[in-house]
Amino acid sequence: MKIKILNSIKAFTFVELIISITIISILSILWFVSYSKNLEDSRDSQRKSELSWVASWLKLHKTKRWEYPTPWSNFDITNNWYISAIQWKLDKNIIISTIDKIPLDPFIGIPYTFSVSKNKQEFQLSATLENNWLNKSFLLWDYKSVAKDILPTIVLAISSSTPVEINNLIWSGATNRTMFIFDNSIHNLPYTFTDPFHPYTDNTSFTWLTNDLNVIWWQNSDYRSCLEISDDWKYIWTWEYQINSWWTLIGTTCTN
């Protein structure tokens, strides 16, 4: 009888041990998930803060030098082979008179993406947010679009060592026009978090993007005349970028 009691006690203790291990494992997983999420949120906040700081430094640099710095290792963004913007990484090769150290992505240690208009009077910065495992883009800029839906961004989800033409094969749909990075978008990213950390695009069409409520499209009326547009170099000969009703980029003659 004593042996049976002891066996019962041993069996009960073993079951308790299994239950305890299971509970501890579940709690550990929950803690790890929560901890990982907190780390991601913290890094995303850091990215936003760093881009905000860099934007302030860039504007101060422009105040002193009359223009934004040009990326040294860069590629041109062209339309009909006319240079519209210059893009590369915000790395140590960019001389900014008001900043001592260029920040890097806090998770993978690569530079943020940096783009300036051809006349070096406007800029865009972009980073990729971890966003709870659903990566999306984050942009800061002082770029001004022309009238309605004209070239809503000057940053592309692409890297290159040669000029990138965005207006070739205009009716095919297979052009770099699908690689514009839009703020808050999950479709085109400045970089990924997996080696080799290249820009990413899913080649989503403009039509689909306009139906995505998360994508931030903006319109403005900063320009009051064609002369102002021309003075700001927002033209290609006598043309400007424009997205027409079929959401393809075409040229349109500027009229006051």
Can you put this structure into words, describing what you see?
With 256 residues, the protein is of the alpha+beta class. It has one domain (33-253). The chain is built from three helices and ten strands; from the N terminus they run αββββββββααββ. It has helices at 2-65, 206-210, 226-231; strands at residues 74-79, 82-89, 113-117, 123-129, 136-141, 164-165, 188-189, 200-201, 239-243, 249-253. Strand 1 and strand 2 (82-89) form a beta hairpin. The protein is elongated and about 85 Å long. The termini are far apart. Residues 170-174 have low confidence and may be disordered.
Short description:
With 256 residues, the protein is α+β, with helices and mostly antiparallel strands. The protein has three helices and ten strands.
Number of helices: 3
State the order of secondary-structure elements, H for helix, E for strand: HEEEEEEEEHHEE
Report how far the terminal alpha carbons are from each other. Answer: 104 Å
Mean pLDDT: 78
- Tell me the number of structural domains: 1
**What kind of sheet is the major sheet?**
6 strands, mixed
Structural class based on helices, strands and sheet pairing: alpha+beta
How many E strands?
Answer: 10
Strand content: 15-25%
Low-confidence residue ranges:
170-174
Main sheet: strand order: 5-4-3-2-1-6
Radius of gyration: 25 Å
